[in-house]
Amino acid sequence: MMMMMMMMMMMMMMLWMMMMMMIIIITYYNSFNIITQH
Predict the structure, then answer these.
(1) CA dist 23 to 2, 26, 30, 38, Å?
(2) Spatial distance between the Cα atoms of 3 and 19, rounded to a whole number of angstroms
(3) How far is the C-alpha of 12 from the C-alpha of 32, rounded, in Å?
(4) Distance CA 2, CA 18 (A)
(5) What's the predicted TM-score (pTM) here?
(6) What's the per-residue H, E or C state across 1-38?
(7) Mind listing the pLDDT tens digit of every residue in the chain (38 residues)?
(8) Can you give the pLDDT at residue 8?
């Protein structure tokens, strides 16, 4: 049981980290595009 909980927590953390990375990359990309447009 404990192993399952640990695995679930690890998976959630990985997903959260990936999501955060995607958001950061998108925001940086958008800001870069805005800068290049002007």
Answers:
(1) 32, 5, 11, 23
(2) 24
(3) 30
(4) 24
(5) 0.59
(6) CHHHHHHHHHHHHHHHHHHHHHHHHHHHHHHHHHHHHC
(7) 789 999 999 999 999 999 999 999 999 888 887 777 76
(8) 96
Tokens of 15: 């997903």
**Amino acid occupying residue 19:** M
Residue 30 has which token pair?
Answer: 């958008």
Residue with tokens 């950061």: 24
Tokens standing for residue 23: 């958001």
